[in-house]
Amino acid sequence: MPAAFFVVRAIVADPAKREAFDEWYHREHLPDVIKALGAVRGWRLWSASDPSLHQAMYQVADQARLERDLGGEVIRKLVGEFDRAFPEVTRTREILALAEEQGPV
């Protein structure tokens, strides 16, 4: 089964909140999501062309488990924590399946 990725795009519209968001995500949320989803690894990115856009990606080995987790208590808890910390930040979520990988090993 190919790798699956959980992608969360967040818009942190208020520039004054980006530093606190960045610190919270680094310190708490990224490690919590990696652990809760059993992710192999996680990445966070800030857009170079739109400073309000933050994206997090989590690589998981088992897409079926990811889909179960995103339909149950696991995601409800993570979303609740996010909403408590940054209720004004809007986000979208999606699951991507690896179609191809190239490059040196």
Physical arrangement of strands within the biggest beta sheet = 2-3-1-4
**Percent of sequence in beta strands:** 25-35%
- How many distinct domains? 1
N- to C-terminal separation? 19 Å
Level-1 CATH class name: Alpha Beta
- How many β-strand runs? 4
Remind me, CATH topology? Alpha-Beta Plaits
CATH architecture: 2-Layer Sandwich
Radius of gyration: 14 Å
User: Which structural class should the secondary elements be placed in?
Assistant: alpha+beta
Mean pLDDT value = 95
Along the chain, the helix and strand elements come as: EHEEHHE
Name the poorly predicted regions: none
- Oligomeric description of these chains: single chain
Largest sheet: 4 strands, antiparallel
**What general outline do the C-alpha atoms trace?**
globular
Number of helices: 3
* Helical content band: 25-40%
Describe this structure in words.
This protein has one domain (4-97): Alpha-Beta Plaits. By secondary structure, the chain is of the alpha+beta class. Helix content is 39%, strand content 29%. The longest helix is centred in the N-terminal third of the chain and has 20 residues, at 18-37. It has helices spanning 18-37, 63-70, 73-85, and strands at 4-11, 41-46, 53-60, 90-97. β2 (41-46) and β3 (53-60) form a beta hairpin. It contains three helices and four strands, in the order βαββααβ. The protein has a four-stranded antiparallel sheet with strand order 2-3-1-4, with helices on one face.
